[in-house]
Amino acid sequence: MASSSRPFVLTLLIAVLLVPAWAGAQTVTNARIVEFVPSPDHSERLSDGRAVVQRYVMEVYQAGASQPFHTVDMGKPSPQSDGKIRFDFSATVAAWPAPGGEYQARVAAVGPGGEGVSDPSNRFTVSSCSYTLSRSSALFPAGGGGGEVAVTTTSGCAWTASEGLSWVTMMTAGATGSGRATFSVAANSGTSARAGTITVAGQAFQVTQEGSCSYSLSPSTASFAASGGTGSISITAGSGCAWTAAASASWVSVSTASGSGAGTVRYTVAANTSTSSRSATVTVAGRVHTISQSAASGSGGGTPATSLPSPWTNGDVGSVGLSGSASYSSGVFTVVGAGADIWGSADSFHFVRRSLAGDADFVARVTSVQNTNSLAKAGIMLRATTASNSQHVILDVKPNGGVEFMTRTSTGGSTAYVAGTTQGFPAWLRLARRGSTITASVSSDGRTWRTVGSRSLSLPSTVQAGLVVNSHNASVRNTSRFDQVSVAAASAEAPAASTGLPSPWQTLDIGSVGRAGSATYSSGLFTVRGAGADIWGTADAFRFVYRPQLSGGEIVARVTYVQGTHSLAKAGVMLRDGTGANARHVTLSVKPNGGVEFLRRASTSGSTAYLGGTTQAFPVWVRLRRSSSTVTAAVSADGTTWRTVGSTTISTTTPLMGLIVSSHDTGVLNLSKFDRVTVR
């Protein structure tokens, strides 16, 4: 048993990007992860029952300074399987005084006996280059395939990509400036799924591949009265295909925890004594069975349901420390919540929620966020269940106006920071759900919106949509206010009055798009809907509106709108050698955020190359001009003054010129619009 005077011993291994322990200065980018060996007293307690180590605190100093400029309270994370603690503080890096410079860090173990600290002299240098990945993970079938991730950075900033996995091969070793890292995944002959990470621009990118086994569950949902009961799940799987079953909540008890091949999982649902309904999941071989249970009758703690307009209800999620509440008056929701954070593998916050089915737009204006902590948050969320470890998407704003877009893609998985921005109060927030794609946007007036990010997430068809408040301190309640709250079904645009394309224009889907696209024309406006994974790699998937190339070899179009189905969705113009999915092509495309990309596939079935890019506010004029075998790409704000994006060569036998739309998601159609289209 440790004494209260026992000193702590702490070794700081890493304060940046999971590189080996340093000797002297290290030059790194995008500093975000601290890794250290916990104190030997980490799990010990004093004779009075108090923990010897109650929490860990990291302090960051500018080189030569005597006082830290940035402090992070890590709480008390559990060591990982290698005995080390890793803590991601990327969301707080914006508080650093400058993008570049020399820093030093230390970690302190804090308890009743005081503090024990690591060596404060460990130094590292943060470069002025920063890198953003278009996504943090990718899932592949057992048969393997090709993948890519876009890297956004400043011109002149170099980056590398490396695999570190025997079954993943990097096709792109790195680049300077924005570009794409491409890789291939070998077929998985084993029955079990496998996962690992590759490193792109100093950041970990998760690659997961299914095994040769396939699984299905029946039924996918079950409902229980407040009294509880028993349920069962039938599993279909091949012989020898192993599986495990686990429940997301303590009130669901699974009696069959594992098996192989076809089988049945049985579980028991305990009685619900609270006045709030609840939900949980049983996960079998990565597939999810959702359980919902009615509330008990009678009154109980928390805010009475009558204080909120129907169908809204509220309650705490996870271990919040102090119970929260919510009230409504004259269009204003006042929400009070505690909780350590909405992060990691489990959350704690107050949730004002309602059920929401299918595609929809969820909008709220945050008028105030109490500054209980710099990382306190108030925002809007789509959540699979009310379990603390549920899948979710959240768009929140902190007391300083910083906006965060975050997701947890699997039950009990880690939360990922997708993107962020800043927005003064009041801050309008919007989550738009279209199929599996969730797009987050902010606005200062509720009319003009800026896209923060987009993420594909497999949520149930019916989710819990609501307002969230977290104090970032289990001992303090945060009071935040919302108004202009609306939940509306996604509206489909009316088709154009004339659906016929002018001769000689034609349209068809190229490659395996997932969902059939379409194209209409009216009064000079082309409205194109297209799905497809991407225009990239060795084969494409998109909607093509095209005509034969004329002798002059030029196509011009103004892109007036690109739906934000994904941050890498695209609409633009293309010169293509036929309609094969693997055909040679040159493409100039625009993404929802106004980013412009110049791409080329020089040979049939060859890899696609990123040739250059720029940004241009909507509407975006795009042009491809061919002279002999040379094609030049240019953009314009007015159709008169053009900026060259790049130039390349291509040979064709059946040259076609046209408009392209790809949603970057096989399950979703992207709607984009073009006018001022000319081919000459």
Instruction: Tell me the count of domains.
Output: 5
- If you compute it from the alpha carbons, what radius of gyration comes out, rounded to the nearest whole angstrom? 27 Å
Which secondary-structure class do the elements indicate? mainly beta
Number of helical segments with 4 or more residues:
0
Name the CATH architecture of the largest domain: Sandwich
CATH topology of the largest domain: Jelly Rolls
Identify the quaternary structure here.
Answer: single chain
Widest sheet: strand order? 28-33-42-35-36-37-38
CATH class of the largest domain: Mainly Beta
Shape: globular
Distance between the amino and carboxyl termini: 85 Å
Q: How helix-rich are the residues, as a percent range?
A: under 10%
Note the beta-strand portion.
over 45%
Largest sheet: number of strands, sense, barrel closure? 7 strands, antiparallel
Spans of at least 5 consecutive residues whose pLDDT stays below 50 are 1-31, 117-127, 298-306, 491-499
Give the integer mean of the pLDDT values. Answer: 80
Count of β-strands: 59
